[in-house]
Specification:
The structure holds two protein chains of two kinds. Chain A is of the alpha/beta class. Chain A has four helices and six strands; from the N terminus they run E-E-H-E-E-H-E-H-E-H. Chain B is globular and about 45 Å long. Classes of the chains: A alpha/beta, B alpha+beta.
Chain lengths: ~110, ~150
């Protein structure tokens, strides 16, 4: 898995690519932790290049969302989620916990 | 007419029980799922269930020790893709774990049990056996909906 991050005026954008599984989830968590460590809690995640996410990756998402939403200081939004990953998010009941946008531009613009 | 369950194709591979093996296991499973002519959703779901099952074996059966292996056998017959995962760690029965509440509000969500949800919901049959010879988890995905 590879991850790139970019800072925008109103949010940070994270773009993982490849597989997010038990081996790579710590790297995904670290990228998100680094953003929160800067005091940024408005985060958009571009899923367009993610091939697979396991429950280990979902744990990272839920823990990050809890931290970001604390004190109403921000939230995590998801963008360009491939169909199979969306059905994983639906099964896990995540579609009520995260705003999901069709494309990155709309997600970034929502903050 | 009786449906034949005689395997037409069998693939077996052994992987070291560590998280770094998950990508190779996925590749092995995806090839078998494609050979069983599952559609892309079916391939993803089998990949997901096996990833979760193997992650559990690594975490719970072997406790993250790097000394064990996971033996993975894929059988394809007329009706199904059957994946048999065998390990020699501590017995861990995924069927004994309760399902997480996926409707709870954010603050009440626990971060465990989701993997088992994927195994149960995305496979058509899940069987677990343990004996002194090891633990065997059998995951079955029908190639087509079974005839009523």
């Amino acid at each position: 898995m590879q991850i790139t991050s970019a800072q925008y005026k109103h949010c940070d954008l994270v773009k993982p690519s490849g597989r997010i599984d038990s081996a790579t989830a710590p790297q995904f968590a670290e990228a998100l932790d680094q953003i929160m460590a800067k005091g940024q809690y408005k985060i958009a995640i571009d899923f367009s290049q993610v091939e697979f996410i396991s429950s280990a990756g979902l744990r990272v998402l839920i823990n990050t969302q809890k931290l970001c939403k604390r004190y109403n200081r921000g939230e995590v939004a998801l963008a360009s989620v491939p169909e199979n990953i969306l059905s994983a998010l639906e099964l896990a009941g995540f579609t009520t916990l995260f705003k999901i946008y069709e494309d990155v531009l709309t997600a970034v613009g929502s903050f | 007419m009786e449906v034949s369950r005689k395997p037409l194709i069998v693939h077996t591979a052994v992987f070291p029980a560590r998280y770094e093996s998950l990508a190779s296991i996925s590749q092995f499973i995806r090839q078998a799922a494609a050979q069983a002519e599952l559609d892309s959703t079916g391939v993803y779901r089998v990949d997901s269930a096996v990833d979760e099952a193997c992650s559990n074996i690594i975490e719970h059966a072997y406790g993250n020790r790097v000394t064990g292996n996971i033996e993975c056998t894929c059988q394809i017959d007329d009706t199904a893709l059957t994946i048999i995962l065998r390990d020699y760690g501590r017995p861990f029965n995924p069927n004994a774990i309760p399902e997480p509440d996926v409707t709870a509000p954010l603050e009440e969500r626990t971060d465990h049990g989701l993997g088992l949800l994927f195994i149960r919901k995305w496979m058509d049959e899940v069987h677990y056996e343990f004996s002194e010879q090891g633990n065997t988890l059998t995951l079955v995905k029908y190639r087509k909906p079974p005839k009523q």
